[in-house]
Amino acid sequence: MLMLLLLATFVLCGHGLEESLEDNGRVVGGTNAQHGAWPWQISLQYYSSGQWHHTCGGTLVRPNWVLTAAHCVDRSFSFRVVVGEYNLGQNDNTEQYLNVERKFIHANWNSNSVAAGYDIALLRLSQSASLNSYVQLGALPSSGQILPNNNPCYISGWGLTRTNGNLAQILQQAPLPVVSYSICSSYAYWGSTVKDTMVCAGGDGVHSGCQGDSGGPLNCLVNGRYYVHGVTSFVSASGCNVYQKPTVFTRVSAYISWINNVINSN
Q: What 3-state class would DSSP assign to 13?
């Protein structure tokens, strides 16, 4: 069975990956995003050793709700969400800091079986974000929508700049076109590891998500507008940007009913 690498970052042995940041860090193969380019992107942070640390991304889907990956929040840290974030290492004067009041992890999520899917969670915030040009709600696709092969998409986040590298300080973006399920589930790619409730993107061996990008959005262009079609989930344990091992995302359109039910019931 192929080994999978989840894309969250947590303190290991008392030392955070966040402690040695690159000034020109980026999503693997990516570039600096413009400030405000992805205004629904959030930084999910956990509290440890008297400090807040970036661990994952996420998408603001309501003023007081964030969509992220289950594996980002299936442990007992205190979490907060930063909206309007751009440079993790400085005050951009656009940030809003919001505590996570409650976590809703999909009931079928199993941290011992990532390939089973259901890597999705919702976070209810203690207060609503104030929407402005730097803080906006992400648009979600219609239920069941499947994008065609090579549909243009971008991953965004503050993840590692290379396999075993450092976290980015400035929000990064990288082009990751969709890889259709029929291709991604073929033997040369991910095979049966990938389920039809997931979406693959990238796989060119240059651009990819990496640790720290988990939970963040796959922003896909559809009819002239960007929609969040994926929640960043995993890559190959052999490395982040392995050829023909695209970054794998939870397919948002497979969970629209679940998202709506959780939000409307809570």
A: coil
